[in-house]
Automatic annotation (TrEMBL):
Gene3D superfamilies: Vaccinia Virus protein VP39
InterPro entries reported in the protein's UniProt record: Methyltransf_25, SAM-dependent_MTases_sf
Protein name according to UniProt: Methyltransferase
GO terms assigned for molecular function: methyltransferase activity
Gene Ontology terms: biological process: methylation
Source species of the chain: Nocardioides luteus
Coiled-coil region: none
Stored Pfam families: Methyltransf_25
CDD domains: AdoMet_MTases (cd02440)
Protein keywords: Methyltransferase, Transferase
Domain Methyltransferase positions: 57-146
């Protein structure tokens, strides 16, 4: 698959999040923004220690990078939810056996239906004040004892070029959103771990972590049983 042109990326970046991803969807899997397969595979290996799982939900599923993984670790067909119709169309072509739902992740339309929820690389699309509605909805979607698995890449040190690349990206996005409408919410360093954990706990989760050697760790937020 040929990736998007510079012009196409520029048009996407000057659109809203939903419209931008609708435009990018047909070529999204050829961009660096797609969750890398080694990261998905590491998540699958880490989850193997905590199963078996019956039914899985991929929150902000995009084109479906996590849906194939859910098929391997759960007994029933997975569900993917996203608010971009274009991304869901690509996911439908790649994963015809998945149940796909178009919805805003800040108001998930599910109640105690899943025992595993995952989300890959989506937090950057939510402002800090939007984490609680997101986590509240995931908590409601899980059965008692269910797990929300949130893969987290290793944070680069200030001495590493990646640190300054991420910081520079966020600065560019802040400038863009200050001078252009509609906003495109995509920040890479706005969810420090203490604040993230605090919002998960406030939503009713207990928290544990397990290492994913070579890539980071898996945050395991569990809805308490009973």
């Amino acid at each position: 698959m040929e990736g998007p042109t510079l012009r196409e990326l520029a048009v996407q970046a000057l659109s809203s999040v939903e419209r931008g991803y609708d435009l990018l969807a047909p070529k999204f899997d050829a961009t660096p923004f797609r969750t890398p397969e080694p990261f998905v595979a590491a998540t699958r290996r880490a989850l193997a220690e905590f199963g078996p799982f019956e039914r899985g939900l991929d929150v902000c599923c995009g084109t479906g990078a996590g849906l194939g993984m859910l098929t391997e670790v759960t007994a029933e067909r997975p569900t993917g939810v996203d608010f971009s119709a274009g991304m869901l169309e690509q996911a439908r072509q790649a994963h015809p056996d998945a149940d796909l739902v178009r919805a805003d992740a800040r108001a998930l339309p599910f109640g105690a239906a899943y025992d595993l929820a995952v989300s890959f690389g989506a937090l950057g699309h939510f402002l800090p004040e939007e984490r609680r509605p997101l986590f509240d909805g995931i908590h409601r979607a899980l059965r008692p004892g269910g797990v929300f698995a949130l893969p987290a890449a290793r944070a680069p040190e200030k001495t590493e070029p990646a640190y300054w690349l991420l910081t520079g990206f966020d600065l560019v996005m802040r400038v863009r959103n200050a001078v252009w409408r509609p906003k495109f919410v995509m920040y890479l360093r706005t969810h420090p771990r203490p604040e993230l954990y605090a919002d998960l706990v406030a939503a009713g989760f207990t928290i544990d972590t397990t290492p994913m050697p070579g890539v980071g760790e898996l945050i395991l937020a569990r809805r308490p049983p009973g």
